[in-house]
Amino acid sequence: MKTAKRAKDRRSVIIERHEFKPQEECGIFGMACKESRDIAQDIYFGLYALQHRGQESAGIAVQYECRKVSYSKKMGLVSEVFPQRRLSEFPSARTGVGHVRYSTTGSSNVANAQPVVFYGRYGRTAVAHNGNIVNCDRIKSRMIKNGHIFQCSIDSEVIAALINQYSEESLEAGVKKACGEIVGAFSILIMADDKLIALRDPLGLKPLCMGKLNDDIIFSSESCAIDALGGTEIRDIMPGEIVTVEKDLTVRSTMLDGVIKRRSCIFEYVYLARSDSRIDGVNVYDARYECGRMLASLCKIDADAVAGVPDSAIVSARGYSEVSGIPYTDALSKNRYIGRTFIQPSQSMRENSVKVKLNAIKANIMGKRLILIDDSIVRGTTSRKIVQLLRDNGAAEVHMVIASPVVAFPCFFGVDMESKDKLIGGHQGSDAICKAIGADSLHYMPMELMVKACGGQKSDFCTACFDGDYPLDLSDYNLDKFVLEL
Ligand code: SF4
User: Between 20 and 30 A from 371 (CA), which of 81, 99, 461, 480?
Assistant: First the structure.
C-alpha cells in the first residue's frame, strides 16, 4: 500500500512538473577569493539569482584552511535550505561552489543533491555540474566492474569519479582525460587542491561565464548572478575551455582535446535563462525582444491588444507591440511563490493548477481581441488552459503567437522534456494544435528568424528539440532514462 501511495504521490509531482514548462536541470555558481572571508553568503546570493534553473535542491561547499571542505545540501529552495543561521555556520573560506538542481536523471532526493563532495587524490573535492551525460551508464558500469562504488544515481558523481581516476599527473590532466570520454552536455565547477576549475563541454551546450567582484573571481551559469552580487562579467567560458584559478588568483586557460564547435542550447534564449542574462555575448532580453519584433512583421493579426505569458514571453510581446503598433497589455498575473512543495493531491486540483499559477487580469482583456505571445508549446495542455482562462475572463479572441518553432523532439542534454509522442508538435500539425488549444489562430517563429534573433546562425546552436538536428550522434546510447514518461 505504502509503495502504491508513494508511486501515486510521485506521479502527482511529475504531472505538476510537466504541467507548466520544460525545466532546466541545474545552475552552478563558484567563487575564488584573494582572502579568506564569508564566501558562503555570496554563493547564497549567486544561487538565489539562479533559482529559476532548479528548485528541487540546493547546496554549497566551501574550502577553508588546509583544504578542508564544509558543505551542506538539502531538498528545497535556496532560501529554505540556507536560512541565515545555517549560512553563518560556514567557516571563512577562499573558494566555494554552489548548485541548484532540478532532476531529470537520478531521482529527486537529497542523495542526488549537489555539489558532489568526496575524498580523492587531491583531498576533499567538490564538483557541481549542469547538463546530462549520454554515455554515463556505460562508464558507470565499467567503473563498478573495476571496483568503484557510487552513492547516488546522478551522472555528476560519475564525472567526479572519472576525473579523480585520471588525475594521477594533475587535476587538470584528469579533467582533460575524463572529458575526452564523456559525451553530452556539461558545464562543471571543480574545487580541490586550493584551485577552482571551470569547464564547458566542446559544444558549449550549457552556458557558463566568468566575472569579477573586486579581485575575486566568479563563475556562474548565467551572468545575472554576477550582476546580483555587484560584480562585473568578464567573458563567457568558451566551448571546450578549461579555466583554472590558482590560490593566488592566477587564471590559466587550456582547451579540451578533440573537435570544438559551438552549438549552444537555443532554448536558453527562448525560455530557460533569465531575461537579464547575457549568454555567449548576446543579451537574452534583446534576443526575446527581437523575436517579438520579427513576429510582428511576419504575422499581421487584427487585434486590440498584445500580451505575453509571464515571464519569458513578456519581452517578446513588448517587441511585437512596438512593431505592430498594437498596445501591450498585461493579460496574466503570475504567482511567483510556488516552490517544489506545490503538490496537487487530486485530479480536480491538478486541472486547476494553471489557475493557481496564473490568473487573468479581467479588466485588461474584457471584450478584447487578444494576441498572446508565448515562448514555446510543448505538450499543449498549458496553452489550452491559458486560452480557456482568457476566454472565461472575457477575451473576445485569442490568437497564439509562439516565439519559437514547434517543439517536436525530446532533449537529451539536461532540459526536462517529454518523449516525442507526448510533445504535441511531435505528432500534430499546426491546424490540429490550434484546434487542440482552442485558439482563434496559431503562428510560430520560423527557425531561420529565431537563430537570427539570437545573434547567430543555425550552425551555432543546438536546435534539436525543434528540428531533430542533434549536435551529437546519439545512435549508440540508451536514451530512455532521459525521457520522463507520464
Ligand atoms: S534539444 Fe533543445 S533544450 Fe535540449 S539542448 Fe538542444 S536546444 Fe536546448
Answer: 461
